[in-house]
Amino acid sequence: MSLNIVLIAGSSRANSQSAKVAAFLGQRLQALDICSAPRLIDLGRAPLPLWPADDLNGVWADHAQVLREADGVVVLAPEWHGMAAPAVKNLFMFAGYKELGHKPALLVGISSGQGGAYPLSELRASSYKNNRVCYLPEHLIVRYVETVMNSSESQNSDDLRIRQRADWTLEMLGHYAQAMLPLRGLIAMDNAEFANGM
Ligand SMILES: Cc1cc2nc3c(=O)[nH]c(=O)nc-3n(C[C@H](O)[C@H](O)[C@H](O)COP(=O)(O)O)c2cc1C
Questions:
Q1: Whole-model pTM above 0.70?
Q2: Residue 45 CB less than 6 A away from ligand 1
Q3: HEC sequence for the chain
Q4: Residue to probe by mutation, ligand 1, list 79, 81, 121, most atoms within 8 Å of CB
């Protein structure tokens, strides 16, 4: 069964490296027969207003619909000043358990240098409490991002290795997404008493 996987490019830049990697991973999801039509939320091209927003019927309504239909998500977080970029943090101010609750998520750190780990530890520490997204124990860090994933064929051994690792983590995400499908029918998510996590 083809899964519905949504990729979130978490940069506020219009032509971001995060969006480039998201497009590449989307192609791999198709090539690996995990998802026939991956969907992309590019926060650089369809930005959300800074929370709080007066109008939840605008861009957020579109993003929310896409997320509600997801079986799993890929969250691409660029490292800016040793942090997760603000666009991706802002998304988690909007997204709740109806969009993300008990769905598996693969984290992908993006860095033009040797960084990329800080946004992942930040998101693992804070971003899931109220929406209950389930981050996989495995994640991906795309370092020297400008030098990899630029064409259909890998250009060098580093490019090949990150592509192989990407496939491995995407396969894992597919297994989690498949296994967790029945879970959401078992967990009562509409209990108003416990709408927020502790
Ligand atoms: C404001 C700003 C701060 C940055 N700080 C870091 C940093 O702390 N560590 C790092 O590895 N890269 C840093 N970078 C470089 C980014 O990793 C690089 O621009 C990457 O392409 C960002 O992804 P994006 O193109 O999706 O925005 C920074 C970039 C910007 C624009």
A1: yes
A2: no
A3: CCCCEEEEECCCCCCCHHHHHHHHHHHHHHHCCCCCCCEEEECCCCCCCCCCCCCCCCHHHHHHHHHHCCCEEEEEEEEECCEECHHHHHHHHHCCHHHHCCCEEEEEEECCCCCCCHHHHHHHHCCCCCCCCEECCCCEEECCHHHCCCCCCCCCHHHHHHHHHHHHHHHHHHHHHHHHCCHHHHCCCCCHHHCCCC
A4: 79
pLDDT beyond 90 at 148: yes
- What CATH code is carried by the domain that includes residue 117? 3.40.50.360
User: What's residue 150's pLDDT?
Assistant: 98
Asked if the model's pLDDT at residue 1 lies above 80, the reply is no
pLDDT at 38: 98
Q: What is the span of the domain harbouring residue 99?
A: 5-194
Q: How many domains are contained in the chain?
A: 1
